[in-house]
Amino acid sequence: MENDTYKTLAAPGEETLFKEKNSKFFGYAFPIANEDEVKTILADIKKQHYGARHWCYAFQLGTEPNIYYRANDDGEPNNTAGMPIYGQIQSFGVTNVLVVSVRYFGGVKLGVGGLISAYRTSAQMALEASEIIDKTIDVHFTVKFGYPDMNKVMRIIKEKNLDIVSQTMENDCTMTLATRKKNAPMFLEAFEAAYGIVVSPPTPKGGV
């Protein structure tokens, strides 16, 4: 059966600090829902660490097969910062996550190997300082029906333990409902068996 859970962070992790040859690497890990949040978080970190030399990061959004990620070296030599950070996101098996490592240069160059190791360690420490949780991949679907069917619809919602995301009551009624992915076929059948109720195809929720 197709997996319908994924690992992510419960909340932003604690700040971590890794030191290597006088350079300091402050590590952070955040749960995110979209790329706009990345820009906001980075702007806040740059204000907090305005004296730093590099603000390197990587993030991943979505689940297989729709994974989107970016890695940024922020002025460090190519692939010495962003990709080692992203490698730790992969290693921990998490998604919808941003990891940032802020470097204060200590006057001693670390070399390519030293940088890769330092950023990898910083990212690992940041993720280890975070609570990792399992979340379900939910799908949304829309149900349209007339007022006479209201009781029938509400009974299915209650029986199948569905979440009502939004509802519009005009000439006809429209509800957006959510359930975990693996349960979608079962409750779609329940609605389609009820006469006069039109169900739209499920769509993934929250970009996952």
Characterize the structure shown.
With 208 residues, the chain is α+β, with helices and mostly antiparallel strands. The chain has 2 domains: 5-134, Ribosomal Protein S5, domain 2, CATH 3.30.230.30; 137-204, ACT domain (Alpha-Beta Plaits, 2-Layer Sandwich), CATH 3.30.70. The chain contains 5 helices and 12 strands. It has helices spanning 35-48, 82-92, 111-128, 150-159, 184-193; strands spanning 5-9, 16-20, 23-31, 54-61, 68-72, 97-104, 132-136, 138-145, 163-169, 173-180, 198-199, 203-204. A 5-stranded antiparallel β-sheet has the order 2-3-6-4-5, with helices on both faces. Strand 9 and strand 10 (173-180) form a beta hairpin. It starts with a strand and ends with a strand. The model has no long low-confidence stretch (mean pLDDT 87).
